[in-house]
Design a protein that fits this description.
The complex is a heterodimer of chains A (223) and B (313). Chain A has 2 domains: 30 residues; 189 residues, no CATH class. Chain A has 4 helices and 9 strands, in the order αβαββαβββαβββ. In chain A, the strands form 3 sheets. Chain A has a 5-stranded antiparallel β-sheet with strand order 1-2-8-9-4. Chain A has a two-stranded antiparallel sheet with strand order 3-7. In chain A, β8 and β9 form a beta hairpin. Chain A is elongated and about 95 Å long. Chain A starts with a helix and ends with a strand. Chain B is mostly beta strands. Chain B contains 2 helices and 21 strands. In chain B, strands 1, 2, 3, 4, 5, 6, 7, 8, 9 and 21 form a 10-stranded mixed β-sheet that branches. In chain B, strands 10, 11, 13, 14, 15 and 17 form a 6-stranded mixed β-sheet that branches. A 4-stranded antiparallel β-sheet of chain B has the order 16-12-18-19, with no helix packed on it. In chain B, a hairpin with a 2-residue loop joins β18 and β19. Chain B is elongated, with a radius of gyration of 26 Å. Classes of the chains: A alpha+beta (223), B mainly beta (313). Chains A and B meet through β7 and β9 of A and β10, β19 and β20 of B. β9 of chain A pairs antiparallel with β10 of chain B, so a sheet runs across the interface.
């Protein structure tokens, strides 16, 4: 037989539990959205196949449509929907290097370029999905990274990284520019996270894998 | 007392069991995979190195320890050259091949002992031979190698204003089928173009098929469209001449086709040597080895060009 004090204690415990649960849900939901991505600064990215979109071009209607594809509620964990799968893109990257000789004599300039895993495998997220840096590598947070890797072909295949040095003579009044273009693979979609049937996070995710980079050198004389 | 002895015995058995489970078999052999490729490099200073990537199925062995190396040399049937190993570094993440895990390492070779400002040496089916302090000797097959030593002190009758590669598909392989080059003269008297070489043993330019271009093409434009022929074969049994004689047509863009010898070669980086005459005197203009493209993975080579070497302890 429970006394009045015991009943009050049970109610208090219940309130504390629900309150704690709510606080946890709010805390998870308040994670910082959208982290910057390198490929977002590329001059141009064009899909080989028509009708494909980058995550940054998703409209509110796109998000609503994709979110509507999920069943009402799930018990726990991430649920992923793939909107764009292994789609080839051509891109024009940012200018890698621009050197200007403002002097009166020719200079010999040494250009160093380095291929790296960071450039070859890039990710971005929107909504309450966030991106963390672990061990110098960007990953989707909250266990989503592993789920996405299991869903789309995003395992790192790079087996070689190289530093490349190129020497060039730059005449007075001359600009030397190195630009890169390339090919890549894009996967994107949306994801939702549930915690005891409660939706805690939702947003878009995208992976961008550079498969080949092409280099071009341009020398321009001013005046 | 009995209890203590029993506990000590159990503890001993547990520790011994854990050690037995965790103990690794001692290495009895190490497998090394090397790739036969066409290397064409310009060496413009004694510090410049040539990177040779090999795949090793073990980490942390003396085979990839720079300090364990006593000497190294590159050799083929007709000659040899002493090189020094400037460094050995990890060259990326491991990959699986025939059920084994291989770790890429790059041997950065320096040419301090043979450095010159005007020298070109070529090796066909070359071997890189490395001798270690413990008397072990390893030999890797590295393919063809052409080294051009030059200080890049070029005459200034003209300048190169643009350079990029054109890619094409031949027998289902994606290969470099040529490059676009922009030329700008600095003199008023006519120049005569005498040759354009990419200093490679497995590929060369097709001098006679060079054409000037009205505008900059896309990097995927078929060679036929650029040279104005119905068909153009980029893989041949013999290489065309890289030299000839052609009056300089003035400033602008040119397309220089590349022909691959016998098979599609992985050709992503090479120097360009342009010979020409001005007022009856022959000159040479040398461009450092430009990286036309860099792929995500290791260079694509056929399985015939993957060579296995085994070192047994």
């Amino acid at each position: 037989m429970l006394s009045e004090a015991d009943v009050k204690g049970v109610f208090l415990m219940k309130k504390l539990f629900i309150g704690g649960l709510l606080a946890m849900v709010i805390a998870i939901g308040m994670q910082k959205p959208v982290l910057g991505d390198e490929y977002g600064s590329y001059q141009d990215i064009v899909f080989e196949e028509d009708g494909q979109k980058l995550l940054k071009d998703f409209t509110t209607g796109d998000y609503d449509g994709y979110y509507g594809c999920f069943a009402k509620n799930y018990f726990m964990g991430w649920k992923i929907l793939v909107a764009t799968e292994d789609q080839k893109v051509d891109f024009v990257s940012e200018t890698k290097l621009k050197v200007y000789n403002s002097g009166y004599s020719t200079i010999k300039h040494e250009i160093t370029l380095k291929s790296s895993v960071e450039t070859q495998f890039q990710i971005s997220a929107t909504g309450s999905i966030s991106v963390n840096i672990k061990g110098g590598e960007k990953k989707f947070s909250g266990g989503l990274d592993a789920d996405i890797k299991a869903t789309v072909d995003y395992e790192k295949k790079t087996t070689s990284s190289e530093e490349y040095v190129f020497k060039i003579n730059v005449d007075p009044g001359t600009y030397v520019t190195i630009v890169t273009m390339g090919e890549g693979i894009v996967n994107n979609g949306v994801a939702k996270h549930y915690f005891f049937w409660i939706l805690t996070q939702k947003g878009g995710w995208e992976t961008f894998t550079v498969t080949t980079e092409y280099y071009e050198i341009i020398k321009e004389r001013l005046g | 007392m009995k209890k203590i002895a029993a506990i000590a015995l159990i503890a001993y058995l547990v520790v011994a069991g854990i050690l037995l489970i965790c103990a690794k078999d001692p290495l009895t052999e190490v497998r090394i995979l090397s790739l036969r490729q066409d290397h064409s490099r310009l060496i413009a200073s004694p510090e410049e190195t040539l990177g040779i990537v090999v795949l090793v199925d073990a980490e942390g062995t003396f085979l990839t320890d720079r300090d364990a190396i006593r000497s190294a040399r590159i050799a083929d049937e007709s000659g040899e050259m002493a090189v020094s190993t400037a460094s050995v570094e990890s060259a990326g993440i491991p990959l699986a091949y025939e059920g084994r895990t291989y770790y890429p390492y790059r041997f950065n070779l320096a040419f301090t002992e043979v450095y010159s400002t005007d020298l070109s040496v070529a090796f066909r089916d070359a071997m890189l031979e490395i001798t270690y302090e413990n008397e072990a000797v390893l030999e890797f097959s590295i393919g063809n190698l052409r080294l051009t030593f030059d200080d890049l002190e070029n005459p200034n009758h003209w300048d190169l204003t643009r350079l990029f590669g054109v890619m094409g598909s031949e027998n289902g392989e994606e290969i470099l089928t040529g490059f676009v080059i922009g030329l700008e003269t600095n003199v008023s008297s006519p120049l005569v173009l005498l040759g354009i070489s990419i200093m490679s043993e497995g590929a060369g330019t097709d001098f006679e098929s060079m054409v000037s271009l009205p505008e900059s093409p896309d990097r995927q434009t078929p060679v036929e469209d650029l040279v104005g022929l119905e068909s153009y074969v980029s893989i041949r049994e013999t290489l065309p001449a890289e030299s000839g004689s052609m009056l300089w047509p003035g400033d602008g863009l040119w397309f220089v086709p590349i022909v691959h010898l016998e098979e599609g070669r992985y050709l992503s980086r090479f120097p360009i040597v342009i010979t020409y005459s001005y007022l009856g005197v022959e000159y040479r203009h040398v461009w450092d080895d430009f990286l036309f493209f860099s792929p995500e993975n290791l260079p694509e080579v056929s399985l015939d060009d993957v060579c296995e070497t085994t070192y047994r302890y």
